[in-house]
Amino acid sequence: MGQLCDTWIRWQNDSSRRDAGGPESFTVDRNGDLYHVRDGVANHYDNTAGLSVNSIGSIYEDREGNLWVVTDRGVDVFRDTPVVTFSGNEGLIGANVRSVLALSNGSVWVGNVEAVDIINADRVSAIATGHGLPGQIVRAMFEDSTGRIWLGIDDTVVTYKSGRFSRIKKSDGSASDQTGVAASFTEDVQGNIWALIDSDPDETGSGRLLRIKDQRLEEEIQMADFNRPHYLAADRNAGIWVGSGDGKLAHYLNRNADTVLSLESGENPVSVYSLSVDSDNAVLVTSSKGLYRLKDGKLNLLDSRSGLPCSLIISAIKDNYGFFWLYARCGLLRISASDWTTWLKFPDSKVSVKTFDALDGAQPSAGSDQPLASKSPDGRLWFASGEFVQMIDPSHIYANVIPPVHIEELVADHKSYDTLGQLSLPPLRRELEINYTALSFKVPRKVLFRYKLEGHDKGWREAGTRRQAFYNIMIFGPETTGFG
Predict the structure, then answer these.
(1) What's the confidence (pLDDT) of residue 144?
(2) Which helix H or strand E contains 341, and what residues bound it?
(3) What is the architecture of the domain spanning 84-396?
(4) pLDDT band for position 482 (50/70/90)?
(5) pLDDT tens digits, residue range 363-391?
């Protein structure tokens, strides 16, 4: 790599910045090459990564955290995005991400085609087909209370622990080679592992629930009335919830389905994407219509009528601060803990939402199996998104500072006036237009404005992204206003 000596800038590891793995720096070596160094690992950036030219002159970090790189052919900028993508460019082997599982040891497993991709702090590795993986397609994944990992690989249920894959066995100890396609796993309060098997997604009644104890298949329940059973979650009372892709829910307790309901109504079909049980023992279902919450027999729906910017929700997860996150068609949505609590008490209320969209790095799509969202021990949130995995760290989301506001022009009765220094308007001016902007280079299109004309407005006026203020007032005498 050469001696790193000429020009460098260190990104401080404080609460206002996102950092996915310790101290980091951008460094230019004596040959003018740019390197990104994190945790002792250096990555080289050149024109194949988007730089205008390979030779770097200097680098500078502005007040918003943008990194400006001066080259022989121009100025390039690196912008830190809250949502980070892991794809083939970062080392994933496959391009068909089906599930994502954050393990208790800090690594993140990605269920893919022809590999289990493993994301660690310093590298991305894989257990690939033909190199240790006992199959081709990795579907559902789950880590139980003992640290054993359960996987649906092709049409077999296998476990992984201490570096070895093992197939489950029948109750008599004989091999159980083909159990069927495992779409979801869960663990009940008694330590039983449940696997949801769907041998033929197009055939009603093909679904089976397997109860596994000590890696032995102890019980099998046929779901005769279910079409496309795909989702599984354990409640806090030894029961199991099963969901289908077309919105049917069933609660199994002691082999029997004691509750069966459908989210569909008449001509309004629904598509389900995930199923979970929260700390209040409520069932959460993400769907094409919004987020359903079933608690004590009462079903509520969080959707666009509740304040969400869109209703199609792929997955849902709560962070360590009580914020509720929805991976939705329109972006990654964050609901504050207070708004979420209010909605739980008053389902007709509206929630305020912070949206992370494509400009923030979010590229939502859906994986195929469970889980579609997972939380690392360090609090980072991971989402399976079809061709790649996306991550956000709620503890290190860049807090945008208030950018400096600049008054560009003042127009009174269609005549423009200089805004530098003290401005004196003639009397009997009626129409007043103030053109302004804010100097932000991070995401200029997302800068929002509000304004107040002192002596006239009682409160702030919300302007959104508009950079003009309009007034229709009469100025009766010489009026001096200061701009600068």
Answers:
(1) 96
(2) helix 337-345
(3) 7 Propeller (2.130)
(4) very low
(5) 998 888 999 999 999 999 999 998 899 99
> CB of 64 within 8 A of CB of 400?
yes
At a CB cut-off of 8 Å and minimum separation 6, what does 358 contact? 331
Give phi and psi for 355, each to the nearest 5.
-105, 125
Give the side-chain half-sphere CA count within 13 A for 245: 15
Q: pLDDT tens across 11-64, in order? A: 333 333 333 344 556 666 555 667 666 555 566 677 766 677 767 777 888 877
| Start-end of CATH 2.130.10.10 domains in the chain | 84-396
Strand 169-170 versus strand 216-223 pairing type? parallel
Query: Residue 409: which residues within 8 A CB-CB, separation 6 or more?
Result: 416, 417, 419, 433, 434, 435
**pTM across the whole model:** 0.81
Q: Are 379 and 319 spatial neighbours (Cβ–Cβ below 8 Å)?
A: yes
Q: Are 273 and 314 in contact (CB under 8 A)?
A: yes
- List Cα–Cα distances, 108 to 133, 140, 244, 277, 373, in angstroms: 17, 14, 27, 22, 11
**Bond prior to 403 in cis (omega within 30° of 0):** no
Q: How far apart are CA 479 and CA 423, in angstroms?
A: 8
Sign of the dihedral defined by the CA atoms of residues 219, 220, 226, 231, in that order: positive
CA distance 101 to 90: 18
Two tokens at 250? 């069933």
Q: What is the pLDDT of residues 410-426, one digit of tens each?
A: 888 888 887 776 777 77
User: Phi and psi (nearest 5°) for 99?
Assistant: -160, 165
C-alpha–C-alpha distance, residues 239 and 241, integer Å = 7
pLDDT, tens only, 64-98: 778 888 888 888 888 778 899 998 888 888 788 99
